[in-house]
From TrEMBL:
<keyword id="KW-0804">Transcription</keyword>
<dbReference type="InterPro" id="IPR009057">
    <property type="entry name" value="Homeodomain-like_sf"/>
</dbReference>
<dbReference type="InterPro" id="IPR018060">
    <property type="entry name" value="HTH_AraC"/>
</dbReference>
<dbReference type="InterPro" id="IPR029062">
    <property type="entry name" value="Class_I_gatase-like"/>
</dbReference>
<dbReference type="GO" id="GO:0003700">
    <property type="term" value="F:DNA-binding transcription factor activity"/>
</dbReference>
<feature type="domain" description="HTH araC/xylS-type">
    <location>
        <begin position="215"/>
        <end position="296"/>
    </location>
</feature>
<dbReference type="Pfam" id="PF01965">
    <property type="entry name" value="DJ-1_PfpI"/>
</dbReference>
<protein>
    <submittedName>
        <fullName>Transcriptional regulator, AraC family with amidase-like domain</fullName>
    </submittedName>
</protein>
<dbReference type="GO" id="GO:0043565">
    <property type="term" value="F:sequence-specific DNA binding"/>
</dbReference>
<keyword id="KW-0805">Transcription regulation</keyword>
<dbReference type="InterPro" id="IPR052158">
    <property type="entry name" value="INH-QAR"/>
</dbReference>
<dbReference type="Pfam" id="PF12833">
    <property type="entry name" value="HTH_18"/>
</dbReference>
<dbReference type="InterPro" id="IPR002818">
    <property type="entry name" value="DJ-1/PfpI"/>
</dbReference>
Length: 302
């Protein structure tokens, strides 16, 4: 069980909270082992949008596998001011020191700065607050034009809807991109990936269509792209003929099912190579018999 704890501060933005909370809740609906909870200094929490919230005041026991996230708040003139109590700041630091991951959405980055977790780390926040964050925390490297930044189990995001991107990234990092793609599809969002990775993935880039049969086949390919897949088997799973599946797949994605599989293999192989894997090892890991086909695909993609 992975606990995801949201630390709520007064005047928080609803979407800063609701977006990532929905990601982890949807992930749990898909069978991933997440439990979401909310803590605050007081039980009643005001929001920037006027909807009152109720949170626990007692902290759950957190382990290294658990996540602690701080949503942002509305207060442009005092965004950088202290928002956490001393006890809350200590809890944030203690969780990170135990090996846990700590994250923020939008101005929540200032809370991580208050806790001393931005010193010597790369981070980001909403574009309207980046100058203020850099001024208040000169020891941090504030990166601009990023949806989110990951640095030594401290993850910060640009704000508002980008909290969804951050949460999907965390799901992908723990369970793989196919799991994140299923969650994104369940939420009907077009997810983007940022930081050092590509800003979008093939699994998500070709999902903006309404064909249930094609989505179903994509689900199968996403999970089994490293295996040999027969068009006849994919068509049977979709309940259509091979010709019908190919036509619908091309209409929906611009490519055939097997071409889609090759794109997924290439994207995963590029990631492995970027992480230091030899080309031959990366080729075999994604289902190619040797590196020759991978080299041809890489050359054709350039």
């Amino acid at each position: 069980m992975t606990r995801v704890v949201f630390l709520l501060v007064p005047q928080l933005h609803l979407l800063d909270l609701a977006g990532p909370a929905q990601v982890f809740s949807t992930a749990a609906d898909h069978g991933l082992d997440y439990a979401v909870s909310y803590v605050a200094a007081r039980e009643d929490v005001t929001t920037a949008q006027g909807l009152p919230l109720r949170a626990a005041t007692d902290w759950p026991d957190l382990g290294p596998a658990d996540l602690l996230l701080v949503p942002g708040w509305r207060s442009p003139a005092t965004a950088g001011g202290p928002r956490l109590t001393e006890a809350q700041a200590a809890q944030v630091v203690a969780h990170h020191e135990r090996g846990g991951t700590v994250g923020s959405v939008c101005s929540g980055a200032f809370a991580l700065g208050q806790a001393g977790l931005l010193a010597g780390r790369r981070c980001t926040t909403h574009h309207e607050l980046q100058d203020e964050l850099a001024r208040r925390h000169p020891e941090a490297a504030v990166l601009r034009d990023r949806l989110f930044v990951v640095d030594d189990r401290v993850v910060t995001s640009a704000g508002i809807a980008s909290g969804i991107d951050l949460a999907l990234h965390l799901v992908a990092a723990r369970h793989g991109p196919a799991a994140a793609a299923r969650v994104a599809r369940g939420m009907v969002v077009y997810a983007r990936r940022s930081g050092d990775a590509a800003q979008d993935s093939a699994m998500l880039r070709h999902r903006s269509h309404l064909s249930d049969a094609v989505h179903h086949v994509q689900d199968l390919i996403d999970v089994r792209f490293a295996e040999p897949l027969r068009l006849a088997d994919l068509a049977a799973a979709a309940g259509v003929s091979e010709r019908t599946l190919t036509r619908r797949f091309v209409d929906a994605t611009g490519m055939t099912p097997l071409r889609y599989q090759s794109v997924l293999r290439l994207e995963r192989a590029e990631h492995l190579i970027a992480q230091g894997s030899p080309t031959e090892s990366a080729a075999r890991a994604v289902g190619f018999g040797d590196a020759r086909m991978l080299r041809r695909l890489r050359a054709g993609a350039r």
